[in-house]
Design a protein that fits this description.
Strand order of the largest sheet: 1-2-3-4-5-6-7-9
Largest sheet: 8 strands, parallel, barrel
Number of domains: 1
CATH architecture: Alpha-Beta Barrel
Number of strands: 9
Distance between the termini: 9 Å
Structural class: alpha/beta
Order of helices and strands: EHEHEHEHHEHEHEHHEHEH
Radius of gyration: 19 Å
Helix content: 40-55%
CATH class: Alpha Beta
Strand content: 15-25%
Oligomer: single chain
CATH topology: TIM Barrel
CATH superfamily: Luciferase-like domain
């Protein structure tokens, strides 16, 4: 993290439900985490839409975003993201316009073109029989219009929504989303936390192709990544095994305990787990420096999926301490 580039640090939450938890307990854990990370000075807190996954309860994403907003004071809260194939842009505009009215200057809208689930569930969610994945660029344009000034509206308007100017971010894990974000002059958030294979190419393409807009004068890159930070390396190893199991629980292909996987299966899953920063504070600091030398992200969107709530919050504390130690040099 160079002195010339100030990088923001933010939180990504899938709102997992861990062993022995009831749904209300998982939601209370989310509230505790948003309060803790707000106190630590994290910039924003995003919740991701997923469906038909027993270990993740962020399906009604808008409701959880509203709950996080009403249980915090200053941190920005938003969607990382809302999967547009599942929703009418008008309804999304009405929902986020309402939240922006209640909580001005605190709401973000990250948009994805994937359904956030398996194929059968996607069919059950799909708002029409047409392939709404391919209508994604037009849906984004519709949302920009709905949030824009009165004079730019058509006969159909989002009330509330008009004039709220809710910030829109394009989410993605491929060059397609990078091209769209660059063409529209919007910030781009890459899913390095689960699909980093095209990250370098996509970010380079976004920056090279970026067209200044009313929203943004220069490219703005957010990169999602995972973190496991603890006070000792031994504790990190234990926490990594737990994260590995969490990943298995959300996988369609693998649905068995960590210890029952063959070495080849463990290696396959590890390669799909995305970018991981892990270790004690010194190790995390070193990895942050190396990562920023390679990618120069404007913002890091970090998920720490640790079962124990105190250890999860401690992971975010260590990451923030590492971040501050770099920022002050």
């Amino acid at each position: 993290m160079s002195a010339s580039k100030k990088t923001r640090l933010s939180v990504l939450d899938l709102v997992p439900i861990h062993r022995g938890q009831q749904p209300n307990q998982a939601i209370e854990s989310m509230v505790q985490l948003v309060r803790a990370t707000e106190k630590l000075g994290y910039h924003r807190y995003w919740i991701a839409e997923h469906h038909n996954m027993p270990s993740i309860i962020s399906s009604a994403t808008v409701i959880l975003i509203k709950h996080a907003l009403e249980n915090s004071e200053t941190i920005r809260v938003g969607a990382g993201g809302i999967m547009l194939p599942n929703h009418s842009p008008l309804v999304v505009a009405e929902q986020f316009g309402t939240m922006a009215t209640i909580y001005p200057n605190r709401i973000d809208l990250g948009l994805g073109r994937a359904p956030g689930t398996d194929q059968l569930t996607a069919q059950a969610l799909r708002r029409s029989r047409r392939d709404s994945v391919h209508s994604f660029p037009n849906d984004v344009k519709d949302l920009i219009t709905y949030f824009g000034p009165e004079e730019q509206q058509s006969n159909v308007k989002a009330f509330p929504g008009v004039g709220t100017n809710v910030p829109i971010y394009i989410l993605g894990s491929s060059t397609n989303s990078a091209i769209l974000a660059a063409e529209m002059g919007l910030p781009y958030s890459f899913a390095g936390h689960f699909a980093p294979s095209q990250m370098k190419e996509a970010i380079a393409l976004y920056r090279a192709s970026f067209k200044p807009s009313q929203f943004l004068q220069k490219p703005y890159v957010i990169i999602g990544l995972n973190v496991i930070a603890a006070d000792t390396h031994e504790e990190v190893e234990v926490l990594f095994a737990e994260l590995f199991q969490q990943f298995l629980n959300t996988s369609i292909v693998h649905n068995k305990p960590f210890e029952d996987l063959s070495p080849a299966e463990q290696e396959q899953i590890s390669s799909q787990m995305g970018i991981m920063i892990s270790g004690d504070q010194d190790a995390v600091t070193s990895q942050l420096i190396d990562f920023q030398k390679a990618f120069e992200a404007d913002e890091l969107m970090v998920g720490s999926y640790i079962y124990n709530q105190e250890k999860k919050i401690r992971s975010y504390e260590i990451l923030k301490e590492a971040y501050l130690s770099i920022s002050t040099h």
